[in-house]
Specification:
Helix content is 38%, strand content 14%. By secondary structure, the protein is of the alpha/beta class. The protein folds into two domains: 17-261, Type I PLP-dependent aspartate aminotransferase-like (Major domain) (Aspartate Aminotransferase, domain 2, 3-Layer(aba) Sandwich), CATH 3.40.640.10; 263-398, Aspartate Aminotransferase, domain 1. The protein has a seven-stranded mixed sheet with strand order 1-9-8-5-4-2-3, with helices on both faces. A four-stranded antiparallel sheet has the order 10-12-14-13. Helix 3 crosses helix 4 and helix 11 crosses helix 13 (376-397). The radius of gyration is 22 Å and the shape is globular. Bound molecules: pyridoxal-5'-phosphate. Residues 66-68, 92-93, 95-96, 136, 138, 162, 164-165, 186, 188, 199 line the site of pyridoxal-5'-phosphate (PLP). Pyridoxal-5'-phosphate binds next to helix 3 and helix 4.
């Protein structure tokens, strides 16, 4: 009998007791809305913003309703208008082109390399077509950020970072989300901190911060944003900026604060699991491990590998065989969007020209979540199962 994995790929850890207690205290107070405070009280949401700004070394922080909301707000705050083109990754997930569509703008997709990062040659070729790049650090893979920023800087392109998968990650020690004009993070259940839904927005730009705060629905209470810019920054924009409500509430903020304090520890635990799986997958015929750049501080909350040049049926066969043994894999090469997974040509509201080089990479990307509820032994077992099934299908295909 071949071994079976019995764990769940969608089971997260419980909210820390400290977060549960803080949440109960907020509920007992009845003051869930961020602007509903007792005299002298600082709202949980404000404390969260101050703490996260300090954690990543940003001047300003705004907590919002979701990561997608943070991205759309960032696009509006930097001045993207309906009809504008916005550069973004071909390899990403639906909320990213969705944020561009939310402001009436048009995504221009930039290709993906075999290291699963944005293709800087393709970026250089397309950079003159837009004023903004919504850069998605998809699945935690960081491009060469210095080279990327140099290309964008030379072309006067503003970079907004989608850090849904890089909260806690860094490039040469610089926290992900602080190199572009705005960094956007998600606090949704499947990301690195869990408040069900939620998002964080950081920037060093006072005007962008002020616009984002007004957009999020601050009414004229913006002076209560202690992680926001001084009130002079709101002087004009408070009349010009629409209220597009998407605030965070004190209940979510209370749950998130202890999780952010533990983020470093959690990232180290993710990486132990990631590297255990990576080690187990090395030297599998037909399977390419994604080598991570030495400049990257990664957060291994998911792992990817390539089945380069495989035909689709063989990849599907690997997935089916792994699924039978309890290992849930996702494939970015599928023609039809499935579950959370879709690809640039399944977003039919965008008129996207075919990208053959990226298609060849996407056709080989296999992806797996690594929840912290897995033990190191679970990870070793998962790797053994994948390795055996990939080898079996590969040998059959090559009549070995
Ligand atoms: C989850 C996710 C987001 C934002 O997600 P929300 O669910 O809106 O918080 C953004 N980008 C990527 C790549 C994601 O996976």
């Amino acid at each position: 009998m071949s071994e079976m994995f019995k764990g769940s790929f969608t089971q997260q850890e419980p909210i820390p007791e400290e977060g549960i207690e803080a949440a109960v205290a907020v509920m007992r107070s009845g003051r869930l809305h961020r602007y509903n405070t007792a005299p002298g009280e600082i709202a949980q949401t404000v404390l969260l913003e101050q703490e996260f700004a300090a954690q990543v070394g940003a001047k300003y922080c705004l907590a919002v309703a979701s990561g997608g909301y943070a991205m759309a707000t960032a696009l509006r705050a930097v001045g993207v208008k309906p009809g504008d083109q916005v550069l973004t990754n071909a390899f990403t997930l639906a909320p990213v082109p969705g944020a561009i569509a939310a402001v009436g703008a048009v995504p221009v997709f930039v290709g993906v390399t075999e290291n699963l990062v944005i293709d800087l040659d393709d970026l250089a070729a397309k950079v003159d077509r837009a004023d903004v790049l919504l850069l998605s650090h998809m699945r935690g893979h960081l491009a060469d950020m210095e080279a990327l920023m140099a290309i964008c800087h030379a072309a006067n392109v503003t970079v907004i970072e989608d850090c849904a998968h890089t909260m806690g990650a860094a490039w040469k020690g610089v926290p992900s989300g602080t190199q572009g004009k705005v960094g956007c993070y998600s606090c949704q259940t499947y990301k690195h901190v869990n408040s069900g839904e939620g998002g964080l927005f950081v920037t060093d730009d006072a005007e962008v911060a002020a616009r984002a705060i007004m957009l999020s629905g601050s009414y004229m209470l913006y002076e209560r944003h202690l992680a926001g810019p001084p009130k002079e920054a709101f002087e004009t924009i408070r009349y010009e900026t629409p209220n597009i409500s998407g605030r965070m509430d004190n209940l979510r903020a209370a749950i998130l604060r202890p999780q952010l304090r533990a983020l470093g520890v959690q990232c180290a635990r993710w990486n132990e699991r990631y590297f255990e799986i990576e080690k187990g997958l090395r030297n599998t015929p037909g399977l390419t491990v994604i080598e991570r750049a030495k400049e990257e501080t990664i957060v291994g909350s998911s792992i990817q590998f390539l089945l380069k040049g495989w035909d689709g049926d063989a990849v599907k066969d690997v997935m089916a065989r792994c699924a039978k043994r309890g290992v849930e894999l996702k494939w970015f090469g599928g023609a039809e969007p499935v579950g959370f997974t879709s690809r640039y040509d399944s977003w039919r509201y965008v008129d996207a020209p075919a990208m053959p080089a990226s298609d060849a990479v996407l056709a080989g990307i296999v992806d797996m979540r690594v929840p912290l509820t897995f033990t190191i032994e679970d990870c070793a077992q998962i790797a053994r199962i994948i390795k055996a099934e990939v080898a079996a299908v590969f040998q059959r295909a090559h009549r070995l």
